[in-house]
Design goal:
The chain has 339 residues and is α/β, with parallel strands linked by helices. The chain has a domain of 232 residues: Rossmann fold. Helices cover 40% and strands 18% of the residues. The chain is built from 12 helices and 12 strands. The strands form 3 sheets. It has a 7-stranded parallel beta sheet with strand order 3-2-1-4-5-6-10, sandwiched between helices. A 3-stranded mixed beta sheet has the order 7-9-11. α1 crosses α7, α4 packs parallel to α5 and α6 runs parallel beside α8. The structure holds nicotinamide-adenine-dinucleotide (NAD) and 2'deoxy-thymidine-5'-diphospho-alpha-D-glucose. Nicotinamide-adenine-dinucleotide binds next to α1, α4, β5 and β7.
Length: 339
C-alpha cells in the first residue's frame, strides 16, 4: 500500500493536534509533517507521546516562509496540505486584527503559491469556519451556498482566505477543497475559549463572564467528529467542493454554561453578565446534509456525552493546563477589561 504524505499546518493547536493524533492512531498509511509556529496557542504539550512517532515529523516554522514550505513539499513528496494554521480567537482579532491578516490571509496565500509551483499533484484542504457566513439573526441554517458575510476581523480574514482558495482552484485548476465547521469543544483547547474557560474558572471558584444577555446561539461539535470529517473530505473524490460541518447541537451560551455548571455540581451564582463582545454574532447554525449525504459522515458524540468527556479530560490533565497556561489563567477578556 502506498503511504500518503501530508503536510499539516497548525498541528500543535487545538484541532490540528487532535487531527494529528487521530491520523497517527488510526491510519498507518499516512505520514505527517507538522508545521507550526508555536504561537501562544500552539504547544508541543498537545502532541505529548506523538512527537517522536516514526510517521510524524515536527517542524517549527511559519506558513509565511516560502523557502521552508518549498523544502518541506519537495523533500517529503507531499500529497496534500491540510491548513489549520491560523489566529483563531475572535476577541483577540477585535483588539489586534493585523496578525490575523498576516497569518490567515497572507499565510494561506503563501501556501497556495508554494503548492502551485510544486511539481507534484498536491491537494489543498483549507480548514475554514461557519463564521464566514456571518450571523443568522432570523432563523434558518448556513448551507454551502449561503452568501459569505463575515462580521469580525477574524471571520473576515478567514473569508478572505476562502476566496483565495476558490480563486486558485478556479484560475489555476489546483485541487482545492474546503471545510466550514461550527464551534468545536474537547480535549486540548486553549483555555481562552468559552468551554475550557468555564471549566477552568469553575475549578478555581471564579466567575464565568457571559457576554451581553448570554442568548447568543452556537452549534457545538465534539472535536474528534470535526477531525473525522476533515479526513473524509481530504480523501474524497471530487475537487473544488466546500463542505459544512456541524453538530446539530444548537445551544445558547447561557444553556452551555448551565450544562457545564450542572455537570461540575457548581452553583449558577458563578455566572456574571459582562459587557458584550463588540459586533457579537447572534446565531450560527449549520446544515451538514451535503457532507452526510455525499461522504457518509455523521457526528458520533452528542453534546451531553461530549461535555462529560471534555470535563473529565480537563480534570485529569491539570499538568497540561499548567504547561500551556498557568492553572489560574486569566482569559483574554479579563486581561483587557476586567483586571
Ligand atoms: P488554535 O488557535 O488552537 O491553533 C492554531 C495553531 O496555528 C497554533 O498551534 C498556532 O501556533 C499555529 N499558528 C498560528 N500562526 C501560525 C503561522 N503563521 N504559521 C504556522 N503556524 C501558526 O486554533 P484551532 O481552534 O485549533 O483552529 C484551527 C483551525 O480551525 C483554524 O483555521 C480555525 O479558523 C478553524 N476552526 C476552528 C473552530 C473552533 O471552534 N476552534 C471551528 C471551525 C474552524
Ligand atoms: O464558529 C466557529 C468558531 O468558533 C471558530 O471559527 C473560532 O476559531 C472559535 O474561536 C469559535 O468562535 P467563538 O467566538 O464562537 O468562540 P468562543 O469560545 O470565543 O465563544 C463562544 C461564545 O461564548 C461566543 O458567543 C462568545 C461567548 N463568550 C466567550 C468567552 C470567551 C462569552 O460569553 N464569554 C467569554 O468569556
Amino acid at each position: 500500500m502506498k503511504r500518503k504524505n501530508i503536510l499539516v499546518t497548525g498541528g500543535a493547536g487545538f484541532i490540528g493536534s487532535n487531527f494529528v493524533r487521530m491520523v497517527l492512531d488510526e491510519r498507518d498509511d499516512i505520514n505527517v509533517v507538522n508545521l507550526d509556529a508555536l504561537t501562544y496557542a500552539g504547544n508541543l504539550a498537545n502532541l505529548e507521546g506523538y512527537v517522536d512517532s516514526p510517521r510524524h515529523e515536527f517542524v517549527h516554522g511559519d506558513i509565511n516562509d516560502a523557502e521552508l514550505i518549498d523544502s518541506i513539499i519537495g523533500n517529503n513528496n507531499v500529497d496534500a496540505v491540510v491548513n489549520f494554521a491560523a489566529e483563531s480567537h475572535v476577541d483577540r482579532s477585535i483588539e489586534g486584527p493585523r496578525v490575523f491578516y498576516e497569518t490567515n490571509v497572507m499565510g494561506t496565500l503563501n501556501l497556495l503559491e508554494r503548492v502551485r509551483s510544486s511539481d507534484g499533484d498536491v491537494r489543498f484542504l483549507q480548514v475554514s469556519t461557519d463564521e464566514v457566513y456571518g450571523s443568522l439573526d432570523d432563523g434558518g441554517l448556513f448551507t454551502e451556498t449561503t452568501t459569505i458575510k463575515p462580521n469580525s476581523p477574524y471571520s473576515a480574514s478567514k473569508a478572505a482566505a476562502d476566496h483565495l482558495v476558490h480563486s486558485f482552484r478556479h484560475t489555476f485548476g489546483m485541487d482545492c477543497v474546503m471545510t466550514r465547521c461550527s464551534n468545536n469543544y474537547g480535549p486540548l483547547q486553549f483555555p481562552e475559549k468559552m468551554v475550557p474557560l468555564c471549566i477552568n474558572n469553575i475549578k478555581n471558584g471564579k466567575n464565568i463572564p457571559l457576554y451581553g444577555d448570554g442568548l447568543q446561539v452556537r452549534d457545538w461539535l465534539y472535536v474528534h467528529d470535526h477531525c473525522a470529517a476533515i479526513l473524509r473530505v481530504l480523501e474524497s473524490e471530487p475537487t473544488g467542493e466546500v463542505y459544512n460541518i456541524g453538530g446539530c447541537d444548537e445551544k445558547t451560551n447561557l444553556e452551555l454554561v448551565k450544562t457545564i455548571l450542572r455537570l461540575l455540581d457548581a452553583d449558577e451564582s458563578l455566572i456574571t453578565f459582562v459587557k458584550d463582545r463588540p459586533g457579537h454574532d447572534r446565531r450560527y447554525a449549520i446544515d451538514s446534509s451535503k457532507l452526510m449525504n455525499e461522504l457518509g459522515w455523521a457526528p458520533t458524540v452528542d453534546f451531553e456525552t461530549g461535555m462529560r468527556k471534555t470535563i473529565q479530560w480537563y480534570e485529569e490533565n491539570q499538568q497540561w493546563l499548567d504547561a500551556v497556561a498557568s492553572g489560574d489563567y486569566l482569559s483574554y477578556y479579563e486581561r483587557m477589561y476586567d483586571a
